[in-house]
Amino acid sequence: MMNVTEPVYLEDKLEEIEGSGKLAYRAEVLPTWCPGCGYFSIVEGVSKAMTELGLDQRETVCVSGIGCASRFPFFMNTYGFHSLHGRALPVATGIKVANDDLTVVVVGGDGDAFAIGGAHIPHAARRNVDITYILFDNGVYGLTKGQTSPTSVVGFKTTTTPYLNVDQPLNPLTMLLSYGASWVAQAYAGEPHHLTEMIKAAIDHRGFSYLHVLSPCVTFDKTSMTYQNLSMKVRPLPDEHDASDFAAAMTAAQNIEVPQLGVYFSSERPTLADGMDDVVARAKAG
Amino acid sequence: MMNVTEPVYLEDKLEEIEGSGKLAYRAEVLPTWCPGCGYFSIVEGVSKAMTELGLDQRETVCVSGIGCASRFPFFMNTYGFHSLHGRALPVATGIKVANDDLTVVVVGGDGDAFAIGGAHIPHAARRNVDITYILFDNGVYGLTKGQTSPTSVVGFKTTTTPYLNVDQPLNPLTMLLSYGASWVAQAYAGEPHHLTEMIKAAIDHRGFSYLHVLSPCVTFDKTSMTYQNLSMKVRPLPDEHDASDFAAAMTAAQNIEVPQLGVYFSSERPTLADGMDDVVARAKAG
Amino acid sequence: MANKDNHKTDIQIAICGSAGDGTIAAGDILKQAMAKAGYNVIAFDVYPPEIRGFGKCIARARITSEQVYSLKSESDCLISLDDSHAIPHVSEVCKFGSVIYDDTPISSVAEGAHISSHLAPAHLPYGVAFREISERITSSARSRNIVAVGYLAGLYDMPADVFHQVIASKFSGKSKELTQSVTAAFDAGFQAGVDTFRLHFDRIGAPRGRGRQTDLVMMSGNAATVQGCLDAGIDAFFGYPITPATRIMEMLASEMPKRGGRLLQTEDEISAIAATIGAGYTGARAATATSGPGLALMSEMMGLGAMAEVPAVAFVSQRGGPSTGMPTKTEQSDLNLAVFGVAGDGQRIVLAPTNVEGCYKCAGKAFEMAEKFQTPVIVLLDLYLSNRYEAVQLPAKNPFAADCSKAPRRNANQAGYSRYKLTGDNVSPRAVPGDPDRMHTVTGLEHDERGRPSDQPQIHQAMSRKRHDKLLPALKYPGITISKRFGDKGKVDVGILGWGSTFGEILEAMIEARKEGISCSAMKVVMLSPLPVGPIIEFIDDCGEVLVPELNYEAQFASLVTGATDRPVHRLNRVAGTPMRVGDILEQIRILAGRGGLLAAE
Amino acid sequence: MANKDNHKTDIQIAICGSAGDGTIAAGDILKQAMAKAGYNVIAFDVYPPEIRGFGKCIARARITSEQVYSLKSESDCLISLDDSHAIPHVSEVCKFGSVIYDDTPISSVAEGAHISSHLAPAHLPYGVAFREISERITSSARSRNIVAVGYLAGLYDMPADVFHQVIASKFSGKSKELTQSVTAAFDAGFQAGVDTFRLHFDRIGAPRGRGRQTDLVMMSGNAATVQGCLDAGIDAFFGYPITPATRIMEMLASEMPKRGGRLLQTEDEISAIAATIGAGYTGARAATATSGPGLALMSEMMGLGAMAEVPAVAFVSQRGGPSTGMPTKTEQSDLNLAVFGVAGDGQRIVLAPTNVEGCYKCAGKAFEMAEKFQTPVIVLLDLYLSNRYEAVQLPAKNPFAADCSKAPRRNANQAGYSRYKLTGDNVSPRAVPGDPDRMHTVTGLEHDERGRPSDQPQIHQAMSRKRHDKLLPALKYPGITISKRFGDKGKVDVGILGWGSTFGEILEAMIEARKEGISCSAMKVVMLSPLPVGPIIEFIDDCGEVLVPELNYEAQFASLVTGATDRPVHRLNRVAGTPMRVGDILEQIRILAGRGGLLAAE
Ligand SMILES: Cc1ncc(C[n+]2csc(CCOP(=O)(O)OP(=O)(O)O)c2C)c(N)n1
Ligand SMILES: Cc1ncc(C[n+]2csc(CCOP(=O)(O)OP(=O)(O)O)c2C)c(N)n1
Ligand code: SF4
Ligand code: SF4
Ligand SMILES: [Mg+2]
Ligand SMILES: [Mg+2]
Q1: How much is the mean pLDDT over chain B?
Q2: CA separation for the pair A283, B162 (Å, rounded)
Q3: What is the pTM of this model?
């Protein structure tokens, strides 16, 4: 497993991007993120995954809320909806209910998702809306310049917690599992290859897939979720891990000391659209 | 364990209430709920628990959102805040932050909590706000006359799902555990004695205590969460269950076929107020 | 009964009982039957507050041969299914009006508990053994409400057959026995009514225009709204229950799937409007429905709809406010929120129908406008309009256009597609996901024509103008009444300017006033945003004095009008939770007619 | 330099560079020092949009000996720390103004990339080796911004000592070496400036009034707001980050705990205002801060505050809208939302300060009023006011009252305590949790005096009146300016009616107009709800024509005023994302003065 302990700089990536032919899925404008931001690997990974999956750009929609992460749709050459802080999931749900043929990729930051958007995740998951939700977790509010987020560690010093954060962080993986998400995985911006594989699998999954991506904010977090720290901590899920075993997934997800990368849980069940088709069938049967 | 398969009628309870001396904690007005509503046992249980704990009414605040359940504060002779649909927890958090001496009991329905209020529960739990949250789960929207709720079972027929509900219900217990609630238990309106014990323990707990109460809506649910069905299904947690073992709690909570009653998880950790005191201390130390 | 024909009919029946008595059901059968018989019917039921129990229900129906616009404040007949609830309403029975009640209370009641001891001398008492008859005929007391309706029908010489038809259709699906026993209960009551000695004027006259029975249907404002959605071809609906809008979602939930439509009860109002906008973004016709508290929560997302220029329709049925307020009482106090409740200069279209037929029209047209102008559209109803029943005739053929979206020209240069192109009519050609090679991102950030975020002064200035100006043509939108004047033409002494459900009472008051020889006319304003300033100014300038009656405390519409026209108006505000009284409006008209320019005095 | 004293000073410095150049820091040192020196300073920094990168920063400071009210549209001196960003701003440098830039670019730059080739003939160029000097003195180029400030100070003959003091305090806490090297960099620049041959009028005159140095402090609107909260004894704060309000929470986060106060960053704005109201319910002084999008989300909870009559303070700093809009640009387009954005007739107090000192006053008084009138209070700021710096003098002694709550009388009958008692002043004695034997439940449902849910007509009518009338005395609240007239007294040709940050530009324009002999005066309205209708009408009736300049597209304040006064006004609206230009206002004044009554023409 290759570990990146150095930030990935945009400059270094430029030719690679151009060479890759992945530009089909990339807008002309290059991301305006800070050099070294983990998000570059994600936009990389998504376009690579889309290329390899051969997705049709005009049938693909990227939906986001507000935040650095949520700038994502502007950097993609697909249809995009840059919505409101915390509301990407309900917007995406509306899109899928109205047009189930579309491939919908939802992205957002940790604050966007677990703070202001917290009421929507359980329902997108339990309804098994057929979308892919990629969560950019940098453990901080980037766009507003460095406040604590629901995934910030205790003791984290920010502009709103100058005397250190005292709130215990949330555990997104156990949460998503408890919501009934039919596919749950974790990746790390510092491991672009694995990240890309995960993105492919997530988009491939029929139903609600949740991909949690650990991604350093090089500008507002020098102490906590840095490349240095993460690269030392992360491990792959043990080979013997059985992604069809919910209890096992729950147990693995409880290990917050050592963030494990890979697919925690994967199962097939009817999507929201399936359910709605049944409803229509029953209604027409009368 | 005594099982009630018959609805509890207000009339039958009247003298008992009067005789009980628990009226100290009861408003003169009797609850306006439908005769037989499971909620009567809860208002009973809370006043009984308060009597036995000898709580000071003027130092006690009952906070609620909107719903049949949320009418609760009007029926209590304590301070009360009947707030907005889904917002009981943030209101209660403000109350405790401002005055930590108060005993705060928050009540709400399944829709109030897990639909519109869903964003607030994770944060009240992770911050370990020192309040007691009693969730009246009847698996339906009572006050608005019978629509599906986040805990309604698949196949449930309501006015908004005339062709049957297709959304998989949420599992509040695993959710609250994943949020980091420091005390999680389940009770049943049909078992008033156990219910009262649970309420006492919940109020006793220092930190965020979550008590999930299964409570039939006799008016809008004739098929699903009825006294009949519940009384047949519920079981006590096995005696060997260790409430200090988080993993064990998680496992027990995953059993949705057989709702188990009792304390799933209980642990001591600093409350939000403790954390804020530390912050003040650090600030003053400079 | 030749005399019947040349005998105008205008009787109002009030049926009063508790939730358990089948009060609403009885009223329902009555109004359905009389509409079937070709009468003009306006009905409004009053429910107990949201919390369950044995609260009071009142079903009121005004049955007339001529077109009328509201209920009367006095009823001609009161039927008591529960004396404890009905007694306070004896006072609403007019002189020589009749009171029908059960003369066999289960137990001998306490002193004063029986309604008969509360009647005025001028009231005609009819004590009938509802319960006894019901028990005799159906071996249960549960049909006593039907017996009462039957008695009324017999007493007033109403045609039994239409009642039979209504009962049959109402219980279709239920067991045959049930239908039969209910019918039997009705007939027994009917006979009792026929056998009762009664005065001539109890009888009702002939229905208005003959042979129209078939196409006259009894409909509530909510039902008409639903029909409008269906005829406009609604694809998706997202809603969260809240009184008095819940019924809209409930009716759509049973109708839409039959047509392949999709409905989702969301986790809250924010997600309801978010999903509506998400669906609208794909080109679908989508809507949500809520009341004031829900609209408040939707405010931010409505602003996104305006900024990103996404079509969306929101039905908002007002109730008593502020906050949770009075969920089962009517009020018109969410106008400010509907028109002004958005961060920044986030305009949108706001329509407020004034009657049941208007609900149908506005509902359908709302989808057209949302699409045509790429904007959120709010249709502002209120509890009185949502739950009020009128006998209406819907157009034979579907009046709504299927697709009003301005699509990009086929062979237009697709490369640099500009979602927010500045065009002559300020509406930009709109591509949706699935369209080839017009990929773009919509956003709530200010943006250039391509949709790229920008905070350049000239761009914000140009886009602000675009978003404002593109809505103005809505004021000339075909097939819907934007504003309309009634009554005397030209200069008049008194003008009444109204909106929403209250306009029915306004019309009644104006008609009365003109009978009294006061020169006056009334104008209804259906489009509240953008506001038809021109026509309103014309109207105001034609009137010596202008009165604006509305059901709110802050005179929200009056202030809106004055703010937009620089014209002073007189305000008449009531917040009783009940419809405005025709008499109250009339009184103000008289005062204004009596002495002009008491404006200063106000 | 005797001539210094009788020489008025009014120079505006603009420092322009990219986020990495320490542009804002340089401007900060400059304005702090000049304020210390006793000058009147107004400063406003422009940041790049929220998303990170190397966007343009501009720090502008206007330094004067007399009191002024806004920045000038032209600067007297431009310092370029990055030519690519500064070049577009050469045009804002006035005739004979100076442009200071680095004459040693790292590499030989491309044709036209150097600012010197963009100067106008009338500009005085000063090429200085910032980078070289910085590297020589501090062996790093990072202090070139300090060198530039030093050069400016030397060039303009500013007192070096105050700069030394500011640098010292700014870097206190940092290493001693750092402070020394920075000071050294300043001195090197200063010397270079002194040694530069310069024209007389570059020198600045004496500061205004002597010996006031000490009590003059440089403060931003947000900082003044924070000071107001602290002096009013804020107990609890709940907020969610959003530009441009975030700084309020951030400053409170470091100050409140020192005083034992508690601050919580909540999960969203709904919980922020909910917790604020929860805290207010216990009797604490609590507040939140947000911008338009957050206020939209708070709308429902604000309505609860109004209905349940709970004190709460919300600071709302406006930015470009609608929706996410332009987060780093200023605008005044949330007035409608602040005043009308609530379901039902849910009134509240809305205050809009017009300058930094006003932020302090309004912040403190907001807590008093919220308590006294048992209501939510919105303090409406905007980005320009939040981030604008002024040299202000805060009152020597704390001007805010500690407890303004109307408590129940000790020996009042405690049994049936009525939380919502109807009283003479419409304010009910308020018990809070902990008070003995006054247990009660507050609610968003309509309620009787005891707080019991009720939808009785007379109760709703009475409570609606109570909630409306209780706020009216706020219009006479002591110790705060509700509205105020400036300029010519009595009848005037032109009146300018303004609110919020724009009033600075309005005053400047009025002063200019009067210099031109136009009879005019200006009125600022600080309380937007309830609106001081009386004074406004008086003012309007004194003016031949009234102009309402504001930074929004829909003329929100103008419509509010007309709606409340029946008086027409002229509208001047700009949505450039930047402050209103004094020249634009002046031009309108001239037009209006030139020919009255062109109203019809409008
Ligand atoms: C309703 C609303 N509240 C607050 C904001 C301000 N805001 C923008 S992004 C953001 C949080 C960003 O953090 P996160 O979601 O973790 O994304 P990141 O920037 O870290 O990628 C906030 C609070 C907003 N735009 N809208
Ligand atoms: C913002 C808002 N949306 C909707 C409603 C309408 N409403 C009142 S209670 C309720 C749900 C009640 O269900 P639940 O929370 O399960 O409580 P229950 O009545 O079953 O005890 C709804 C949707 C409201 N009052 N406010
Ligand atoms: S602020 Fe942090 S999250 Fe945002 S772009 Fe920069 S590095 Fe990435
Ligand atoms: S409706 Fe259901 S929940 Fe509400 S009071 Fe009646 S039985 Fe209880
Ligand atoms: Mg983040
Ligand atoms: Mg429920």
Answers
A1: 93
A2: 9
A3: 0.94
